[in-house]
Fold each of these.
Amino acid sequence: MYRTHNCGELRLQQAGQEVTLSGWVQRTRDKGFMLWIDLRDRYGVTQLIFSEEKSTPELMAQARTLGREFVVMVKGVVIERVAKNDKMPTGDIELEVRELTVLNAAKLPPFTIEDDTDGGDDLRMKYRYLDLRRSPVQRNIIFRSNLALETRKYLSGEGFIEVETPFLIKSTPEGARDFVVPSRMNPGQFYALPQSPQTFKQILMVAGLDKYFQIVKCFRDEDLRADRQPEFTQIDCEMAFVTQEEILNTFEGLTRHLFKTTLGIDLPTFPRMNYDEAMRRFGSDKPDLRFGMEFVELNDVAQGKGFQVFDGAELVAGICAEGQAEMTRKQIDELTEWVKRPQIGAKGLVYVKCAADGTYKSSVDKFFGEADLKAWADKMGAKPGDMLFVLSGEAEKTRKQLSELRLELGRRLGLMKPGEFKPLWVVDFPLLEWDEETQRFYAMHHPFTSPKRADVAKMLSGDHATLKGLRADAYDLVLNGVEIGGGSIRIHDRGLQAKNFQLLGFTPEEAERQFGFLMGAFEFGAPPHGGIAFGFDRLCSVMNGQNSIRDFIAFPKNNMGRDMMIDAPSEIAEAQLGELQIRLDLKD
Amino acid sequence: MYRTHNCGELRLQQAGQEVTLSGWVQRTRDKGFMLWIDLRDRYGVTQLIFSEEKSTPELMAQARTLGREFVVMVKGVVIERVAKNDKMPTGDIELEVRELTVLNAAKLPPFTIEDDTDGGDDLRMKYRYLDLRRSPVQRNIIFRSNLALETRKYLSGEGFIEVETPFLIKSTPEGARDFVVPSRMNPGQFYALPQSPQTFKQILMVAGLDKYFQIVKCFRDEDLRADRQPEFTQIDCEMAFVTQEEILNTFEGLTRHLFKTTLGIDLPTFPRMNYDEAMRRFGSDKPDLRFGMEFVELNDVAQGKGFQVFDGAELVAGICAEGQAEMTRKQIDELTEWVKRPQIGAKGLVYVKCAADGTYKSSVDKFFGEADLKAWADKMGAKPGDMLFVLSGEAEKTRKQLSELRLELGRRLGLMKPGEFKPLWVVDFPLLEWDEETQRFYAMHHPFTSPKRADVAKMLSGDHATLKGLRADAYDLVLNGVEIGGGSIRIHDRGLQAKNFQLLGFTPEEAERQFGFLMGAFEFGAPPHGGIAFGFDRLCSVMNGQNSIRDFIAFPKNNMGRDMMIDAPSEIAEAQLGELQIRLDLKD
């Protein structure tokens, strides 16, 4: 037996007991006549003590051979510390070592295994097993495990059944790119890895499973932006005989349960906002409600005063940064440059300082007098000491730019407080999005989303303008400006599903080839159903106030989709390609 | 809202209440003036009643339009039944329907949705959503969900952390064939889907996670035998600073917990048997202990009597079938033919009837007199009325044949009682298996398994004969003759791991290319560790006394690895192949 206790559990009450511990050497302090070692495992750190007085010279010498990260087993007696350390749970005691066994030596790690490490990203990914020894990363992985367990407990308690859907499925060109898997037994044919279990969970509803969930890996072969992973995890759910209202309540319940059990936080009832309102007030379908700065439309007070930029604009809108009138010229210039970057694309930035003395100073004083600016300020509810920022142009673009500016101000002004959580349901999404470039409709959520019942007739017979206005029973759960979940009521009628595929540009043959099994299933008694999926990696990071999902994934891949530790992907043998009846066709 | 209650929960106490139910039409009985419909959902069946007396003619007419598997919503009043049905939980009541809404019509299903269906395998796989509506299949899927949840609860309670390991990993030619995934971003390179998370879970131990588990999909591109699936599920576990004894106790605890919570069965303490003993007594490393018929070696009493078949044999061994002396000539002939089939490969079958009157009759009376046969019977503990079967030949082969015969007799004689569970730990497996054909060693468990501590020195320096005799800390959990779990203590030392790869025929370069990351990790402070993996699909089926894992998998594939419902795998577009920089190279 390697241990009687772990390194996090010994207390004063064990004083006098002989115990065995195993773990890693975290740190050694050698005072000559005395030597202390911090012994670490997943559960904590226990201080070991060796001394000339109590230890044999051989044991002292042996202790001095230990390097960082050596794995050792020690037997000894728990004693009360003279100098207690109230920052460590085991800080009241130390272990007077009688016997020391080196279980494994360790080379010097390429970076320090401390909360703050000196290792760069690449090095930490390559030696992921060392990075994972660091408490912050280990805590993340443990948090994730707890979050998954609590998800399962809650949903099982609500009558959901976890069903494993297959990983080797069928490729569908719609949506993101599939990873594919050549089939040796069916030469020339390929499986695809699922981008989500969407059709299978709907099939399970047709099958009468009633309430399904799964915490499941999904795969997308996309060019990886900053914080995407080719494989990611979803909490995937579906319910039959259910309305949107019941789904929202169920998953609000799940979210509250998760916050309560893992963070000890009671979330209030989640507000709801429809898509149009979210776009109007925040220029975003995932507004961060930790701070205000709502959009105020200024067309009526800002147009017709001779400022051509505003006069020619579809929309003039502003936000008010409370108490920021003292912002320096340099700060304002930085913000102006920031909104003019191609990623944001604004032409310029108008500001109005509402000075403490009740006067106004703006970048457009030439066109607007004190009274004009006061009218803006009044409309925006600004007080002396506030700062207004105004953008203008085509309405949709301006809202997006203003939304980015609002978020940037939130970040710069420290308004996104860690530990504060503002959930929001955004509902009533459009069913279809028109894409000017390709001159076709795309599904706003996905092709299986149902229009609202009141919109079904319009969908079946409507013209182009009508189709643009269709609303869906589709909803997103937003937390601190991050979409952590999204779902919809689904179509459960073959005719309506076929119509939707048609609107999305499928020929009947294509629709049948790719989704015939689902439309076929709808003919054998499909119940009304709907569901939701949560981005599990993202949920972990948002709940911990962190931006990167990587530190919540045990073995993440880099931006080239590469696992730096195992060095995958890699070349495979010719014979293996031969068995699969494929060959390489490299372009260069 | 589609329902106030489900179809399984109404009782007499709800009599008089107005309720709404939704579900599928299971069956209609029409007596003209009265009409009953069984309405079904996942939770049960509720009887609906329509009558000339209480229902409008329109409602009666509407009810008559409903076909099997129509999806309907009904509002009505719960009433006490005149003729109660104590076989249904809802059998005390029925629902007097006031309002009927057809939510979806249904075509006539291609097979009946009853406990016993008339659907063949292919039809049921193609219309899996209909097959899944049948209670026995639905119960299996729900059982599986419960089993997974209880597994997670138990292991979490024991301090295990569930960690998701990656699905896009690196191909290793050792072991079964990998499924591979071409990488678009790294042209010419491939990921592999994991055959198990073996190396990752060991890395997690090096990372200090201490106790890991995962219920996880694994993939093997094998030619599918009767009851194999290309994707299957494991309960995968690993522990650090642990001895074999602690692992066995932990997972015996898990198994007992699962039996108790899902089946209400208290399993006794699991017996243990070492590999050599299992082979000697049962000719198998996974003996079914639900019945006896242990092997008895007869060389000393059966050789040297002039029967050449025995005299030239390395082993003469028999089993005693209790009370089977009255077996007919025909039955014995059938058994003889059965053991002579190429799959078994015996040359013949010797029997001895121990007649009730104390006399013996055998197929080798020419060579053995009454006294000889009595000596056999005595040695085998046979009583009058028993039947002995004896096989002979090369020891290993004979044991395998006799094991097959024993199991066949167990089946024919009904000795494998459903509901009876006999767990067994088989321990002390050999480390290496010598393969005569390829003249090389194979890992009996896998290349990461540690020899027993006492055998390490022999492994590092031993000759061929010594290597054959090495024993490993490897163990299997056997239940009713099925291996449901297997694991080992792992090597955690770079040198020993390198030696093992060498013995298994790897060049140092191959070992480094494929497993360099793991051997590298061992140099940075790897703790002693070990683990186990359970076949989750198999565990589900064995716990339910069933032979096939298919009915415990929501969407199984057929023997050609094909999903009959979605029709996968399938061809993919040329453009998609082009992006992946591969092309087809079909042989015919």
Amino acid sequence: MMNRRDAIKTWLSLVAGGTTLGFADQPKPESPTDLVAPPPEHEAMHAMPRGWLGNETIGILMYPKFTALDLFGPHHIFISMAGAKVLLVAKTPDPVATDTGVKIQPTTTFADCPEKLSILFVPGGTTGTLEAALDKDTREFVADRGEKAEWVTSVCTGSLILGAAGLLEGYQATSHWMTRDSLKEFGAVPVNRRVVVDRNRVTGAGVTSGLDFALQLLKDIRGKDYAETVQLFSEYDPRPPLDCGTPEKAPKEMLKLLEDMFAPFGKQVTEMAREVRAARAN
Amino acid sequence: MMNRRDAIKTWLSLVAGGTTLGFADQPKPESPTDLVAPPPEHEAMHAMPRGWLGNETIGILMYPKFTALDLFGPHHIFISMAGAKVLLVAKTPDPVATDTGVKIQPTTTFADCPEKLSILFVPGGTTGTLEAALDKDTREFVADRGEKAEWVTSVCTGSLILGAAGLLEGYQATSHWMTRDSLKEFGAVPVNRRVVVDRNRVTGAGVTSGLDFALQLLKDIRGKDYAETVQLFSEYDPRPPLDCGTPEKAPKEMLKLLEDMFAPFGKQVTEMAREVRAARAN
């Protein structure tokens, strides 16, 4: 087994070199599904310590009006996994517009997505998320790949889609604080924690939890050393200039107002859950 | 002046309603540059307390091989500024590929970008960042809009582009820890802090500093209440599962190796700075 020095060096040449830094003379990805996959015959593959080089296939769901940051936090961490393929999977090959209208090109369609994913990851959103959960094709795709995946994961309201696909029944899970309790609609057990791991289900809280979520998952998959190196590389040492990031920390008045404003959305979630159950019963 | 309750309610109907939640029946953006601008005649505009509704124009630079998370952290905060236009500005109207190959559609070209920006924001990257700094059109665009902008800002190695454009001379600034000292090449004073504010220059450290950076800027522009509401809405209460996010916290061996690996990149930065100085002298 190579020593730690060589391991990190090889890792960097694969991850940083292959994607970000361009140190290594790696072939450029030719097809979209080759994104950041290192050359399979790379000499380092035989010398790498167990766990430092993998061959995961990570499928990230994109759907109209998802929230960009829900995706790009975890994506930044996933892409650091040397040897992994990271796919942006959408129903059609067309660019997908986020909830703020930014158009992003998927790499893979539902039809082209590998059957067996190492990680299925679903980002959140609001009305777009409900629409995705109500879309039969999307729900069936998530249910199918989720049942076969090694890890079934989400950030923010993405867990509502996992729930609608029947993947959270009997599992502890979380969501954006505003929709956390709605997870009960899908037979899940809501937990007030930033990242909830229950067997192979890993769910993150609202939007910005994506980095904590993905680092936790990376630690579980690739080990502590690997995750620490990625954390240092990403300079992830958060220092929020304010301390109002949870309902418990917020002024009561502000919280009450946000809750009141979101009440209609909560009702829409309940309605979605009812429709999904009805569709499944038929 | 309306009370706090009405203010938050109005804010939500504009921000959450207009972009994320779809509560309000706002017209959908028709041209790309209309992204999330509320209707100018919205009745709330006259009733909003000072600072809760603005009309900022925010220009975010996109260039080949930028790092997606550098952009989408701050973008998530900027987009919450009711009344602001958030533009993704690139040299040409074509989709821009990030350093991991994700293609993202800009909204605005250099030629179409308003002269006077409230915020100019530049994300980082690695080889792509050096290439952007060496590109005369990009450098001149950044220099021109930066000289006229109210706030000149960056995250990660984005500060190298600001520096190359001559915008950091005599300013305190920061960058990814690996390139922070290189800011001296551009006459800046490197500071080891997650977010550095010097007059109207606001720079963030590596990649993940984007949220801390943007919340700080939001607080300075829209005030504490506004920034806290956005923080709660984004559930920004980070809980990294590991504690290795800075050189000071990392094992010495890991740090030394990363530094060694990055030494060639540091030389490329020095070379870039020399070329830029030579170009300016001619």
